[in-house]
Amino acid sequence: MPLDPALVTQLRSMLARYRVAHGIAAVPNGPGKALEAWVLMRLADKARLSNKWNVTLRRADETPLPTGASFGLPVSQSGIPQSHPTGRCHVLMERKSDSFSLELHGSLQWMGRSNATHECDVSVLPKEIASALRNNGGGRPRGLPVAAYECKDIPRTGQTDEMRQTVARLFDLVLVTRPQSGVSCRIFESASGGSAWGSRSSTYRSFFYRGAFGVVRVGHFSKGARRLGAHYHVGRHGDVYGRVQTIDDIERGWMSLLDNIDGLV
Q1: Distance CA 118, CA 169 (A)
Q2: 174 touches 196 (CB < 8 A)
Q3: Where would you tag: which of 91, 186, 189, 228 has the fewest CB atoms within 10 A of its CB?
């Protein structure tokens, strides 16, 4: 369904604050893509307003998006592209206190242990991982994102099977053992000879607990979906158009993650 008109206005206002194209044409019109864009920009704006992060919109070659240019929110899933001025854009977050940086992406494909690919509607990874892929021909990051949100622009109630799909995706993404080395890790890419990020663990749920993961829905969740999500630390963010508390809960978890991210590395 179309993004709520009030949220369309919010999205355009957030884009305007970054001095990029923010007319109605800047709002993605693919199925569910406007909701993904709104969630992504809310996370970016919340970090910016905290005054702890420098937040900028970037092109696929990591250069700042010029004033008035369109923020190339992806309309289809893909991995990190090869460094080039055109292509999918992303949000760069640089912590003011040191050199640590994160990237926010929409519709990014990740690679699971099974070698199946998994799209994350909104996901976050360290810049060092994204840059290594970008500068070596492009590719898909392996492992569990720092944060990931599945966006369901669907008014009907989300059933247990829907939550099960999200949990299964997370299970396939977790690298309990790092590829080719046997060392546990959270995120890994090998295009440039190998790099890793994140706390080590021998269990799955502990990884989910350390990140920020959730399903954002226009509709509500069934009891089974709520129970399954709660067990695996997957947030249940329902009635996103009608309940202001929903986005507040998402942003609260997001900022808690950012405030404690040093404990993840």
Answers
A1: 7
A2: no
A3: 228
**17-72 per-position pLDDT tens digit:** 999 999 998 998 877 899 999 999 999 999 999 999 999 999 999 999 999 999 97
Task: Report residue 145 as tokens.
Answer: 């994102």
Hey, what are 245's tokens?
Answer: 């508390």
Determine the Cα–Cα distance for residues 220 and 159; give it in Å rounded to an integer: 9
65-to-90, 99, 107, 133, 244 alpha-carbon distances in Å: 10, 21, 19, 20, 31
Res 75: pLDDT: 62
Backbone angles phi, psi at 143, to 5 degrees: 115, -170
DSSP class per residue in 210-249: HSEEEEEESS-B-HHHHHHHHHTT-EEE--TTT-HHHHHH
CA distance readout (Å), 71 to 43, 75, 176: 16, 12, 35
Each residue's pLDDT tens digit, 167-194:
999 999 987 766 666 556 678 776 556 7
What confidence score (pLDDT) does residue 108 get? 95
Chain mean pLDDT for the chain: 89
Looking at the DSSP bridge assignments, the partners of residue 139 are 80
Reported confidence tier of residue 141, pLDDT bands at 50, 70, 90: very high
Question: Strand 147-152 and strand 117-126: pairing?
Answer: antiparallel
Determine the residue type at 147.
Answer: A
Nearest of 110, 121, 162 to residue 36 by alpha carbon? 121
